[in-house]
UniProtKB/TrEMBL annotation:
Its EC number is 5.2.1.8. GO terms for molecular function: peptidyl-prolyl cis-trans isomerase activity. The lineage of its organism: Bacteria, Bacillati, Actinomycetota, Actinomycetes, Kitasatosporales. This is peptidylprolyl isomerase. It comes from Streptomyces viridochromogenes (strain DSM 40736 / JCM 4977 / BCRC 1201 / Tue 494). Residues 30-42 have a biased composition (Low complexity).
Length: 333
């Protein structure tokens, strides 16, 4: 069993997408390296945001380049030091958003790098909510714009507290330095924004094309369910194609072919979902592979590529059910 990345928690609803018979219902690609997650909600008051001191970035100074950061000099601030190294012009980050970012973290006093996403070549979807991420990130990134590079020095009060993070070699007295490249930001009202594609097949479900953040309608025809996987654009985006080994950030809604009853929805949960395509049912993995970021995709999954005779308990899915999904691909991680 691969361990869940410490940075990302499993959102509600993901269990009905996870492949049966495993324990891989992570919400991102698994990683054995520590990340700035929070083990419990913090009771610390909000910090004062100060300009420094902050160590210099000595190499990799461009946006989305792996940075090299000098060791901290002297005593760090006891408050949260934050500096925008590169100012972006994209959407503004708000608390509870999912921020898609690359980042590197190291210890102030030693310069030891304890985690970075650049070497993994996998961006992370980081939710800025209390209890999911250390408070330093919440306060430092809120209000920044996508396309920004942000450096921060996080003292223990808004990091891991007096307990530190032994797994990462972080002591309870360590101030942590991060450089974060904010790629994009999404929230529970985010939608695909692609071009409408004709839905002309009367034997397939029709999916709504609204892009207002509300759940699209799914109208299931009174016809026999297809026996093969269906994966068709409803809205076709212009982003990168998703590969079989990628992780994605999505909005989705799932209904049963028989009766059209909704059994799961990120819209209803008010919670975006991120996961690796290697961790979900075959119908999802095959249906999203090759599709473009920014798209809304209709996926019809026959039982053999879904849950077959072993649906998740409490899901409302009967044995040998054909499943219908609308999936908005917001980002490739």
């Amino acid at each position: 069993m691969r361990r869940r990345s410490l940075l990302i928690a499993v959102p509600a609803g993901l269990t009905t997408l996870a492949a049966c018979g495993d324990d891989k219902s992570d919400s991102s690609k698994a990683s054995d390296s520590p990340s700035p997650s929070a083990s419990a909600p913090s009771a610390a008051p909000p910090p004062k945001i100060v300009d420094g001191p902050l160590p210099a970035v000595t190499a990799g100074t461009k946006f989305d380049e792996k940075p090299t950061i000098a060791k901290g000099s002297g005593e760090p601030s006891k408050q949260l030091a934050v500096k925008t190294l590169i100012a972006g012009s994209g959407k503004t980050v708000a608390e509870n958003d999912f921020v898609v970012a690359n980042y590197l973290g190291q210890v102030w006093s030693t310069g030891k790098v304890f985690d970075n996403s650049y070497d993994r070549k996998t961006r992370l979807a980081i939710q800025l909510s209390q209890g999911r991420i250390i408070d330093g990130w919440r306060y430092a990134l809120a209000g920044k714009k996508a396309g920004s590079r942000v450096e921060m020095a996080v003292p223990p009060t808004w990091g891991y507290g007096s307990q530190g993070n032994p797994q990462a070699g972080i002591k309870g007295t360590d101030t942590l330095v991060f450089v974060v490249d904010v790629q994009d930001t999404f929230n529970a009202t985010s939608s695909a924004k692609g071009e409408k594609v004709p839905q002309d097949d009367a034997d397939l479900p029709k999916v709504g094309t609204n892009t207002d953040g509300k759940a699209p309608s799914i109208e299931v025809p009174k016809a026999a369910a297809p026996t093969k996987l269906v994966a068709e654009y409803v809205l076709e985006g212009d982003g990168d194609e998703v590969a079989a080994g990628d992780s994605v950030l999505v909005q989705y809604k799932g209904v049963l072919w028989d009766g059209g009853k909704e059994f799961d929805s990120s819209y209803a949960n008010k919670q975006l979902v991120s996961f690796s395509l290697q961790q979900v049912v075959k119908g999802w993995a095959q249906g999203l592979t090759g599709k473009k970021v920014g798209s809304r995709v209709l996926i019809v999954i026959p039982p053999k590529l879904g849950y077959g005779d072993n649906p998740p308990q409490g899901s409302g899915i009967k044995k040998d059910s054909t499943l219908v999904f609308s999936v908005d691909i917001l980002a490739k991680l």
